[in-house]
Write a structure and sequence with these properties.
- The chain is built from ten helices and no strands.
- It is mainly α.
- The longest helix has 38 residues, at 11-48.
- It is elongated and about 90 Å long.
């Protein structure tokens, strides 16, 4: 409180500076963790990108390093969660939401490619993602680090774009069946997105773009059908 004679207690500003310093230190600690996650993410992307250039028969071996690379990202996100859960989530989550989304995308793409399971083409639900990453999902009653529905959905839009690219590159590699698998999978995802009433502007724009990936994949499948490289009824 200011003094009775209008003098301002310097302790007021000392406390404000202490708050600023604490906030700055926290942000620096978060950035240090996220820089590590970013390096791990680049390594994971490098390994998973082999799906675009390695024939299907050799892909399982080529993708072996991806599992440990994805697990390292998950461990870093867990480390981040343990630290930031002491602070207001929605005040700071803009610092790490992109990194969370990219880690989810690495995980679901890796699972789809069969990095974790022998069967390919599997989609992890948001609950399964949370369980795999050991992070709570869509928490409403506590102010803790968690995976949001928006982060999961944005990761799915990234996955769809990646699969559209993979459909094209699979044909180049002589794999004519994978585009069919991708087409069925992406169409089902697209149908799911069409049910949703998007409130998030970024998510709405990204989901609107899914139709272009669907069209890109349909064109690949149609071209294969015209060339009699797949059964006509398969498309």
């Amino acid at each position: 409180m200011a003094g009775s004679r209008g003098m301002i207690d310097p302790a007021i500003f000392e406390q404000l500076q202490a708050n600023i310093d604490d906030d700055s230190q926290f942000r620096d600690e978060v950035r240090n963790i996220l820089q590590k996650r970013e390096r791990q993410g680049r390594m994971t992307s490098s390994v998973l990108s082999r799906a675009h250039s390695v024939p299907a028969a050799e892909l399982k071996e080529a993708l072996k390093p991806a599992r440990s690379s994805i697990d390292e990202q998950i461990q870093t996100i867990s480390e981040l969660g343990a630290m930031v859960s002491k602070y207001p989530y929605y005040k700071y989550n803009h610092l790490w939401t992109r990194h969370t989304q990219e880690t989810i995308r690495s995980l679901i793409f890796g699972v789809w490619l069969g990095v974790y399971e022998p069967e390919q083409g599997t989609l992890l639900t948001i609950k399964e993602v949370g369980s795999s990453m050991n992070v709570p999902v869509d928490v409403k009653d506590r102010d803790v680090f968690h995976i949001t529905t928006e982060e999961y959905l944005l990761a799915l839009t990234d996955l769809i774009e990646e699969l559209a690219r993979l459909a094209v590159n699979s044909v180049i590699l002589g794999d004519f069946q994978r585009p069919l698998q991708i087409s069925k999978f992406v169409k089902e995802l697209h149908a799911g997105f069409q049910i949703l009433n998007m409130k998030n502007d970024v998510l709405r724009r990204k989901s609107d773009g899914i139709k272009y990936s669907v069209k890109k994949i349909e064109d690949v499948v149609y071209d294969l059908s015209l060339r009699n490289l797949i059964p006509r009824n398969a498309s």
